[in-house]
């Protein structure tokens, strides 16, 4: 919807988060960690996923900037340069079927305590110019067990010939697929861990 896209463009503000129907905790996380300042020629949005697996397990997948293919289904190959430090680069090969073949991405932030990762696309064969994203993980209780709230936000230039709605819709669809895959992989690992229920207070 146009209204949702308009509010997403101002993600991080109380008005935007309230308009998207987020709870108070989610709104606070977005305000604190997912502030973007999109220009008139950019679009921005925030997506949320609840995963039935503990934060440390989900983070063990998300933090691997050098191995995004562990849960991102559209990546066929990744070659990383550097030691998972700020400024490290990765070269990604994209699977056929998408309007892209390669992407060069730089690690902007990796915070193991706060469970924050940020990256920026700096090159490659695609149409996502000035794309940057932030992923944050937050502990929660789901069905009496440790769970994880994952929030991913992005900002990107709107390509010539496309509208903000079209651009946001396309990127949101990709991120939703990635987050669903992240949930599937994490929840399989959580079952193997046999996490014990937490006693409710």
UniProtKB/TrEMBL annotation:
Keywords on record: Abscisic acid signaling pathway, Cytoplasm, Disulfide bond, Nucleus, Protein phosphatase inhibitor, Receptor
GO cellular component: cytoplasm; nucleus
Domain of life: Eukaryota
UniProt GO BP: abscisic acid-activated signaling pathway
Main location: cytoplasm
Annotated Gene3D superfamilies: 3.30.530.20
Localization of this protein: Cytoplasm; Nucleus
Keyword Cytoplasm: yes
GO MF annotation list: abscisic acid binding; protein phosphatase inhibitor activity; signaling receptor activity
Protein family: Belongs to the PYR/PYL/RCAR abscisic acid intracellular receptor family.
This protein's name: Uncharacterized protein
Organism of this sequence: Linum tenue
